[in-house]
Fold AraC-type DNA-binding protein.
Amino acid sequence: MKVVQFTIPVSRESTIVVQEEKLPHYYPHLHRHREVQIEWVVEGSGILVAGNYMQRFESGDIYIIGANQSHIFKNDESYFNPEEPRQIHSVSIFFDPNYLSQNILSLPEMANIRKFVHGVHNGFQIPEEAREAVQKIISEIIHHKESQRVAAFIKLLYQFSTTRELKPLATSNSEQVISEVEGIRMDRIFQYLVTNYKRHISLAEISEIANLTPQAFCRYFKKHTDKTFVSFLNEVRINEACKIILSGKFDSFSDICYQTGFDHVTNFNRVFKKTTGMSPGEYQKGFRDI
């Protein structure tokens, strides 16, 4: 049986590690690493979970994942269909914030960048209006070597530190102290939910997967996600519903309701509006008008 690691080691051969990859899908398990990760999703789609944050990711998105922040870029089901092979294209930049702060960022001129790096614990999403400039600098980093690469990287950090309205990911960093064993357990819970969300999942059923009593599971899940089990499961379902609406491949909203695991259309509409701030019809119209 394959061993699933929660803490993933990253090469320590240089100040920054740059990885450009084209793969069938992202690493499909919840994990963390001591380095901050800058992730450019050149091509790909799915659900990003980072701490207690959950939202769809699409091609072109750029994220900053905090050091030791548990996360997973979970691709859509279609990426795991061997009959219709797809691929993701990503650029990942890893750096140790402590090492950077003790060396390059210790210079007086780096004060604002140092402040930014110290504040990325919970991660950020880069706003759409800043993507083009960030993508251009990341491309420079990819093509440069040695000192020129480091110079371009500092330029990237400066861009981040001066970008307005960075969107925070997680709202709490309490989950960052999670142990290796707890991380693997949370991954097992998450994998079960995203695999079975289309049907009813009882509290007793998911508690058994976690090897906890229902009462203990509720406390455990709330502690590590800052959400109830039901609200987390509903977010998984609504994210999938959003994907279906954007694809346009559905006959009615009631079809989406039952496809994503909801028992009643009324409940689906209520949860959809609570999660996205708009009704399914308004959501569809909003993207038609873009």
Summary: The chain has a mean pLDDT of 90.
